[in-house]
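Teaching note: in complex prediction, the entire set of molecules is handled at once rather than each chain in isolation. The prompt given to students was simply: 'Predict the structure of this complex.' The entities are:
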Amino acid sequence: MLIKVERSGGFAGIPISNVMDVNELPSKLMSIAKKIMMDKKSFSLPKSYPKGAADHYTYKISIEDGENRRVVECTQYDTTDDLKSLIKYIEKNSKCE
Amino acid sequence: MCFIIPEYMNKNIAEKGSKKQKEQAWKNLVLTEQLRGRRLVTGLMSSMFSVSDKLDRTIYDAENTENLPGKLVRQEGGPAKGGKTVTEAYDYSGSTYKFYKEIFDRNSIDTRGMRLDSTVHYGEDYNNAFWNGTQMVYGDGDGEIFERFTKSIDVIGHELTHGVTQYEAALEYEGQAGALNESFSDVFGSLVKQYALKQKADRADWLIGVGLFTNKIKGIALRSMKEPGSAYNDPIIGKDPQPGHMKNYVKTTSDNGGVHINSGIPNRAFYLAAMELGGYAWEKAGRIWYITLTERLRERPDFQRAANLTFAVAGSLYDKNSHEQNAVKKAWDLVGIKVKTK
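The expected output is the structure of the full assembly:
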């Protein structure tokens, strides 16, 4: 199972894409990733930001397991603490595509 | 039975009524403002409520957390302490206020002396600066790709201008409207820098974010208004993706439809207009763009609409078929947009 975190936006507008094998995640983050995959209602986020806000980050998190794929999109304003931890870990510990 | 009080009547009451009458009229106007746009009531607010005509800045330190606003470290008139980053956020937001006040007689972001709040040292190795709808936020950079984001005066000018846009045209942050939002921030961010350096258009570098990249990155800036797409080309971060002409418009779903990418097109249009008109860029081109943003544009314009309106504003300010109006038309034409007058 692979997890891909794509970040776009920000003042510089430089996109970043990181991929990791879900099995290489620490156990707590692995559970979060698997929950995203299995539970379609979880992490169905609005992709919202405050009125007038600009230069924030937007994230697209894709999890693939063979033929199954789940995509979650959010901004830095509506990431949950779980998602934030997952994103931070992958950005820090994986290779950029 | 329904009573509908016409707008002109609410305005009269808001100006001349009793305190209670003013309050009710004001509430009515605020409600209609949501349907008709903010500008209607902004001027009225200044006359109704006492507003400060003085610069007021507050700097906070997030101490490398993502908690906002953070710890208060400097207030208006307070001693210069807290290090380079605090000083830059303080000084450059002052420069931005001064630019808007002296050139356009604009009293802060909201025209009513709104306090300028900045948070520095946000996050860890945080490679970004942003406007969150109420304040500016600056990261320190990771020291590998980016330096601290307060280093460039045009970054502060850019972020504060997002606030101006929020209170004026309220441009949606998506697609071409979002790219225009970004472009106005680059335009006025650049003008803040040019004003501080007293540079005429032909002496300006027209670069956004000079000094933000570390010396490990092959790039002179984050963006070039003069030549979109030329600011950087690096093996780690890639090549500057900005187009400078509609034929190279980037269709994408990321970055809210490429707001930081396609802003290159209106950026270049402004640069071309400013160069054609000569002198200090804020005097003519800047004025045309400012009036377009604050008096003509509304939430979801596309580039064509912005071109048509800047052309119309130039005609109002300097006469139809004037050198100024023709400069605006030529600038948009050179980026692939033909001004439409009807």
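Point out the following to students. The interface with chain B takes residues 6, 8-15, 49-58, 60, 77 of chain A (CB under 8 Å). Residues 2-96 of chain A form one domain.
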